[in-house]
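USER: My hope is that you can spare some time for a protein that puzzles me. I am handing you a single protein, as its sequence and its fold in token form. Walk me, if you will, through where the backbone shape changes along the chain. The protein I mean follows directly.
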Amino acid sequence: MSEKQIDTDLYSRQIGTFGMETMGKLIQMKVLISGLRGLGVETAKNLILAGPAAVILHDDALVEMRDLGANFYLSEADVGKRSRAQACAAQLSQLNPYVTVSVHSGPVSEELLSGLSVAVFSEASQAELLRCNELCRSRSPAVGFVAADCFGLAATCFVDFGEHFTCRDKDGEEPRSAIVAGVTQENPGAVHCHHDRRHGFQDGDWVTFREVQGMAELNSSQPRQIKVSGPYSFTIEDTSGYSAYVCEGIVSQVNVPHTIAFASYGQCLAQPQAAAGGEALAVPDLAKFGRSEQLHFAVQAVREYREKHGQLPANRDAAAAAACVQLAVESNEARRQQGDAFALSVEKIEEDVVRMVAMFCTCMISPMAAFLGGVVAQEVVKFTGKYTPLHQLLYFDMFELCPKEDPSDWRPQGSRYDDQLAIHGAAVQKALGDMKLFLVGAGALGCELLKSFAMIGACCSDSGKAVVTDMDRIELSNLNRQFLFRQADIGKPKSTSAANAAQAMNGALKVQALEIRVGNDTEETFDDEFWTSLDGVINALDNVQARMYVDSRCVWFGKPLLESGTLGTKANVQVILPNLTQSYGDSQDPPEESIPLCTLKHFPHAIEHTIEWARDAFEQLFVEGPREVNTFLTETAKYLAKVPSEGSGTSQLARLRRVKTMLEQRGGSFDVCVDFAVMEFQEKFHDSIAQLLHTFPADHVTSEGSKFWSGPKRAPAPVKFDVGDKLHLDFVMAASNLYAANLGIPQNRDAAQVSKMAATAKVGDFKPKEMKIKVDDKDTTLEGCMDDDVVVRQVIAEMAELGSKLKASASFEAAEFEKDDDSNFHVHFIAATANLRARNYKIQEADFHKVKMVAGKIIPAIATTTAMVTGLVTAELLKLVTRRTRKVEDFKNAFVNLALPLWLLSEPLPPLKTTSKDHDPIIMGPVRAKPEGFTTWDKVEVRLGDATLKQFVDHMMNEVGVEVMIMSAGNACLYNAYLPAHKKRLGEKVTQIWENVTKQKLSPKRTYLVLEVSASDAEDGVDVMIPSIMFQFR
């Protein structure tokens, strides 16, 4: 299937992660999924959303009632009547119209396997796994083989892609580039990079060089491996015989394909470390070193038990568990006696680990199925050669979910929750159903979490309730990963659609769907009573500001918060527990690097710089331009009076001429729009560049005698308009049609006609001006041409006369940037503009989709990562039910990167403590914490009723021992003891001061204010830090 047949609107976020090459391979794959309990259906769902050509479902077992606890596409009507594969095939096929979903009945034959790309097995016997693995390996090329199982609270995954698998891209990271500042002639040669930023390379990376002057031997396409010697340097091969380095050069990372040899399933049973090249088994949980080796024996013992007895051990069957322990002990002893250095053995089998696996191995719980289903589906995608496959075994457990004491009410009740009952009992299940939860967001994470609520029975009793809120409406691109939505839902609210779909999975789910933003302006809806009623909050958000607000509410009301997020193949989970852990606000990611303004305007050296510049050009021309005209028409005098105070004379003149031109061209023909586009081309890609080179010629040197155009400053070259150049015509097509939309002129999408119009456009000769240009952001030079100040005054006079004659007639239509509509020319304009500017500066151009991702600030997202991380979140949710009897180490934060693959689970960090300091660098003196070591979870409660400010200040002095100097509420300063005018406020009520300062009325629902104070110790005057104050006024 060609690239044109890939639905870039549907797959846009996934393409941002995988890239078009991987998508092209993925849409040709044919995959078998054998075993359709919770793990199988999760894998199938994630994979179908990803978009292979075909998925074949295989599971002849009849649906059991307990299957409904993890397979969300089964219903009670299916129990005992239909096979699992038949029962869920119809709904799986609705997930993606581009994927053919079929059902295979009967044994898995050699013929079936031979036509596949990858075969995935779960719930298969040991003998069946050995047989199918050998058949897959015998094919040429090999058929990918994945065997995975959820044994209650333990999980395992095995991957085998054959003896000669080629990995094209080990991690999926965007290749880094650096500017070369120098290369030595020695062995090994040392490469020094420009100090504007760290190169970011790692030992073993492969790189290529280009544009190196002097040492031209480096300018070959041949990748070379490097060894990092510092943040701005690395070494390469022997360069002692090369020409001397003179200047310039770009060094870039490249992905060099490498071959991975996989061992068979049979070999990995005995020699898992040998199969992985001698590496130890992965350790997903940092608190469980050695656990994977123990789980290896436990899982094999359970499978061996099934081979001997024809079935897995029954739930909580002590005798069967003891038999599994004995099998594990015997297997380990046999390995130890073999004397094989590669045979896995442990010093001693941990019997509790084997028992934990054996006691619940027939259980399938939704958190584990979701976690492993995301992992397995991503491993299947890796068969395309994108990312590093699992090599070759993963073991994972959620043993913390098992209560410390065996519940007496664990026996099955013939319900969908029987597998969970076997683990934690009926009382915990009832408490789970009674939970009152707040889910913030109903996008990809929100959909998965609502499904999890339905599967585990959260909020499913008459006393329970889930509230979900999301303001967004469903778009086409959502359907690729927000699996509760269908084509017919486009345009509908996410929250209500997701809630309805989740209730269809479990009719007992109690959920209220809202379309209300969570923030300061909606505290009348999400009031104290609402927050106080909650048992927990789960964030499913995609922006930091909203996360921070929800976190602050949870901290204030002392509510647990489960925070998670994804970025392509990466994901994280943070568990936030009142008084026990850090809050989200205690630790934040560093802000994104911003691009210096001078780099954007004059000295770009990366495609991201030109894309940002093009995005700004779109805003200036088609958004701000029409708005300025509308402002001019409605408030002519006010507008013209303001112009001279904003920017340089050159920028003022450009704005005024743009307004004047738009007024003159309103109501014209499409020809004027094409003329406009050609003139903009001439100005942006020829004249402005020629002017820059006139000011700073190619041989210009700085006052220090060094070359001006060097390092990050790349000497540009003007581009002459050529209607025969496709990129030039792309710019004109997009710019002319966008301008026509501004003016209310009918658009013209006929490229041939637009090309003819553009060919007749007259372009004037460039005439240089004497201009001042900033060379960097520290430069205080006022940019522009001095002559323009005089012209501005003349044009303002002309515009004033013009404004007096014009009536505020029909307004001009400003564009509103929409990244997901490829027919609106928005991204097309930005792509053409960015790549033309890249040509000016000899920067490698970007494809349309990359421009779309960067300009639209689209976050790469895939279903596999989302499903995997929500499995981890749901496991933490189950722990919240019994959190008051748990220790903090039972809970797990997580960082995952499925591309590597990497799992890191760890205990949540304790809250940050505020402590006294002998010297604070900000106040230049000592500072005291009261109470010592307080955290964000602490607050000072003041219950004085509707007191005056003086009463409050006196209370703080007498009861807390501090003298209040400054008091604020949010951004409003209510009192400043250093300002004499504020002294009169002492006699006013605090509530009245708040209303006067904020110009708002206190809601009848509000009973307190949150106050922050700057204070000093009442005894010695030392500055004091205290927690936030809860001022209870009624």
